[in-house]
């Protein structure tokens, strides 16, 4: 009988931590996926800046903003988006007037997305992408019209990239977060 009890205790010794990890994953997987996406976003920003590719519209801030808004609501999304877009601006060396409308534009898109969690993620992600880029084009055109043709390369690639992200990965990642 003693050997049976020892086997049971040894079995429980390994099963309890595994069960605890699985329980924590089930409870906090949305947060863990958000943290992973934020890490990917920061890494991508670093990579693009290190290799002087920042004029191409590849960024994960919009994707993270909409996903976090749909999962956690507008205010958590606002905080995550503010941190991410601020990091992107600082890491990219954007310290001019540009930050006056870029940071609030992304944050407003995040908050608005959080008020419509029942919408399809592809739809809300597309509208957020178009809204952010329309805002940025408007203010860039008003303040630096000479920069607008060069900036349009970023806008076009950003819209294409984000629509691709939301269409291919949006629903899957949102389901993983639930």
Structure description:
The protein is mainly α and 178 residues long. The protein has one domain: Orthogonal Bundle (Arp2/3 complex 21 kDa subunit ARPC3), CATH 1.10.1760. Helices cover 84% and strands 0% of the residues. It is built from six helices and no strands. The longest helix is centred in the first third of the chain and has 49 residues, at 2-50. The radius of gyration is 21 Å and the shape is elongated.
Any chance you could write out the topology, listing elements then pairs?
Elements (H helix, E strand, L loop, with lengths): L1 H49 L10 H12 L1 H18 L6 H17 L6 H23 L4 H30 L1
Helix pairs in contact: 1-2, 1-3, 1-6, 2-3, 2-4, 2-5, 2-6, 3-4, 4-5, 5-6
CATH class: Mainly Alpha
CATH architecture: Orthogonal Bundle
Helix content: over 70%
Task: Please tell me what the overall shape is.
Answer: elongated
Instruction: Give the termini distance in whole angstroms.
Output: 45 Å
Instruction: Briefly note the CATH topology name.
Output: Arp2/3 complex 21 kDa subunit ARPC3
Q: How many independent structural domains?
A: 1
Low-pLDDT sequence parts: none
Mean pLDDT: 89
* Biggest sheet record: none
Protein structure class: mainly alpha
Q: How many β-strand stretches?
A: 0
Element-level helix/strand string: HHHHHH
Radius of gyration: 21 Å
């Amino acid at each position: 009988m003693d050997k049976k009890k020892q086997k049971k205790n040894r079995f429980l010794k390994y099963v309890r931590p595994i069960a605890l990890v699985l329980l924590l994953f089930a409870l906090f997987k949305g947060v863990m996926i958000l943290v992973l996406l934020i890490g990917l976003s920061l890494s991508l920003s670093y990579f693009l800046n290190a290799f002087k590719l920042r004029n191409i519209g590849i960024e994960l801030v919009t994707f993270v903003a909409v996903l976090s808004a749909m999962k956690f609501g507008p205010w958590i999304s606002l905080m995550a988006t503010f941190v991410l877009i601020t990091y992107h601006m600082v890491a990219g060396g954007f310290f001019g007037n540009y930050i006056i409308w870029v940071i609030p534009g992304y944050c407003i898109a995040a908050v608005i997305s959080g008020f419509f969690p029942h919408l399809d993620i592809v739809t809300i992600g597309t509208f957020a992408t178009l809204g952010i880029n329309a805002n940025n084009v408007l203010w860039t055109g008003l303040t630096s019209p000479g920069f607008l043709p060069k900036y349009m390369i970023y806008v076009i690639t950003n819209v294409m990239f984000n629509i691709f992200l939301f269409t291919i990965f949006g629903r899957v990642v949102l389901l993983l977060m639930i």
